[in-house]
Backbone:
């Protein structure tokens, strides 16, 4: 009897649903409208566009509104249909403009203008529970305004211009990521703020932040290709690194119902991380003047080189134990997914022997969007993901095959 041929398991991938290709310039921010076949986009071409899906299956703008300057960012609140748009006016005052969209998404009524920054607005965030509009700019200022009166409530100046902003309603904590690679936590009040703490873990500028209020975990992405998960609620100072991108991290979204993190990078990579596993912190790199395995001196250790009549070696570090080792004692590579290393990294010989095949089981899946991503938005009610590319194209993806 012939052996039964088993079908090969199919690799689950995101499904490309549609493309929106009519923008004249790069779309800096775009969001999926919940419960609607629609997308809102703001672009360097100074336009705000509301795209609705037609019977033909294509998306066409039901609103095409031109602003006085390039639109750099936006925030949309589906409950109030309030759209806040940040702009770039060069050296003159930069404002956020607020609009209310009609129920049919075919009309946009100007509501208010905030004169907030003296440089490009980098992030704008509307907080319904507080009736606040938070914004950051290249002028290094974090401001918050009352959305009812339009008056400025407070201002905080950062050490570098801000590229990431999140807010926790329960604690009134604002999480601010900047171009120095630092994450700052501020406690905002009605007319004042206080510095809570700062985190320093990235070697490049912070490019994206994502806050999970349920688990009280903050994710930060950076131009150094890495993601760090900061355990805020645990109060233990735990910081978990995730290494799975080959280029600058451009966006982070969290799916709380499945405990999966979605990240994207400027080379088009989309990574789905399983965060429902017990992850380990990466060890601190240890200092030593000689290899902590074979005791050969490193090249700056002149005394030991002279005493032992040995040529100094270059120092490396094992990514698993953190020990300072020479190249001969760390010639092997391995993935260590539970430490966040989805790519092979340097490990010492003894650590390599201790890593099992089970330890090497991946905790992330990798996908190619086939365009250079500048922005990403995930809509959990539909399981759809939006990616905006440097190619001026917006793509809509069904993520349910991989986020489930």
Residues:
């Amino acid at each position: 009897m012939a052996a039964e041929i088993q079908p090969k398991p199919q690799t689950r991938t995101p499904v490309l649903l549609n493309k929106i290709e009519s923008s004249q310039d790069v779309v800096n921010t775009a969001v999926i409208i919940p419960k609607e076949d629609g997308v809102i986009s703001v672009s360097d071409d100074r336009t705000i566009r509301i795209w609705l899906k037609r019977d033909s299956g294509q998306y066409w703008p039901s609103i095409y509104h031109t602003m006085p300057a390039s639109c750099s960012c936006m925030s949309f609140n589906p409950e109030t249909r309030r759209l806040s748009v940040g702009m770039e006016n060069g050296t003159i005052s930069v404002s956020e403009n607020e609009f209310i969209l009609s129920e049919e998404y075919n009309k946009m009524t100007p509501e208010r203008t905030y004169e907030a920054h003296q440089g490009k607005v980098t992030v704008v965030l509307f907080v319904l529970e507080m009736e606040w509009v938070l914004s950051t700019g290249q002028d290094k200022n974090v401001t918050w305004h009352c959305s009812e009166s339009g008056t400025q409530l407070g201002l905080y100046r950062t050490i570098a211009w801000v590229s990431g902003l999140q807010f926790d309603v329960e604690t009134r904590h604002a999480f601010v990521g900047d171009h120095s690679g630092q994450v700052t936590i501020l406690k905002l009040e009605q007319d004042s703020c206080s510095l809570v703490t700062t985190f320093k873990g990235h070697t490049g500028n912070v490019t994206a932040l994502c806050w999970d209020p349920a688990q009280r975990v903050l994710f930060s992405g950076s131009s150094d290709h890495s993601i760090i998960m900061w355990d805020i609620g645990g109060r233990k100072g735990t910081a978990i690194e995730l290494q799975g991108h080959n280029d600058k991290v451009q966006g982070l979204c969290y799916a709380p119902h499945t405990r999966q993190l979605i990240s994207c990078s400027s080379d088009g990579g989309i990574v789905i991380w399983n965060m429902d596993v017990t992850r380990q912190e990466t060890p601190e790199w240890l200092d030593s003047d000689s290899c902590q395995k074979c005791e050969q001196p490193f090249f700056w250790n002149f005394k030991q080189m002279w005493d032992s009549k040995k040529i100094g070696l270059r120092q490396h570090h094992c990514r698993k134990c953190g020990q300072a080792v020479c190249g001969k004692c760390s010639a092997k590579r391995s993935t260590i997914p539970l430490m966040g290393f989805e790519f092979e990294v340097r490990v010492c010989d003894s650590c390599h022997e201790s890593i099992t095949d089970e330890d090497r089981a991946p905790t992330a899946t990798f996908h190619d969007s086939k365009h250079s991503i500048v922005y990403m938005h995930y809509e959990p009610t539909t399981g759809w993901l939006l990616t905006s590319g440097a190619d001026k194209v917006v793509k809509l993806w069904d993520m349910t095959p991989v986020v489930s």
In short: The first helix runs from residue 302 to 308. The helical segments are 302-308, 349-354. The chain is about 5% helix and 50% strand. The CA atoms of residues 13 and 166 lie 29 Å apart.
